Amino acid sequence: MKPSGRIWHVLPLAMGAALLFSALGCANIFVARHKVLVDAIAAPGAVKPTGISYRLLAKKSVLNNASGQASVIEACVDAALSTKGMFKPPATVAPDIFIVVGYGVDQTPKIDAAARETFLQLSARSNEGKSIDAATGTEIWDVRVAVLGIAGRMETAMPLLAAVAADYMGTDTKLETRIEIPQNAPVIGAVRETAIKTLETRAAAAPKAAGAETNAEAPSAAAAANAAVTPVRTK
Do 98 and 124 form a contact (C-beta atoms < 8 A)? Predict the structure, then answer.
């Protein structure tokens, strides 16, 4: 039997439509992505934290680190944790957990700049003793995230790193895992913008030095905000 001319006419149209929808569905392969290294561990029974209070503490190894703006790191981590429903309690109230923050850049001379890690590490400890300012409890979870070859200041990577770290809190990757995050991911932009607002608010609220006509802390806060708003570039 001779095939119907109508069927053979419709078939190419259907195939064309399928190819079009397939192409649209694959459009995201052209979106630039950040490659992030994630290494997370968690104590048995640990769950992803949400709706709990926390207080940040700086890791001893970064207390004297002048290469980064601590205010930017703090603002970015706070912004990322807020996306998980976590919050800081009043200064006189004990938090549910303490989170020790570490960060830095690999400065090994023999390592090429494009291969150097910029990292952020968050380590959570319980607070059974209801301490106000000391992390004396057991470790609940630890997550370390890093990117390679940052083009620019270390702070520019913090919105990205904080956002990824927040996603892996309370999980166990078993081994270091490499993931890819779209550079235009909404969560990164949200963390960046929230951090900027926090830094700007702090700068505006900082008390003026006696007799000064301008806010003494404004320049450093403005520089920190500028560092946070600049989108990070990774290789």
Answer: yes
Q: Which residues pair with 149 in a beta bridge?
A: none
Helix (H, G, I), strand (E, B) or coil at 123: strand
Model confidence pLDDT, tens digit, residues 10-38: 444 444 444 434 444 444 556 688 899 99
Domain of 61, in residue numbers: 33-206+215-229
Q: Please check whether residue 25 lies inside any domain of the structure.
A: no
pTM equals: 0.77
CB 199 within 8 Å of CB 72: yes
What total number of domains does the chain contain? 1
Supply the pLDDT for residue 65.
Answer: 55
In a domain, 158, yes or no: yes
Cβ atoms of 130 and 97 within 8 Å: the answer is: no
d(CA 186, CA 179): 17
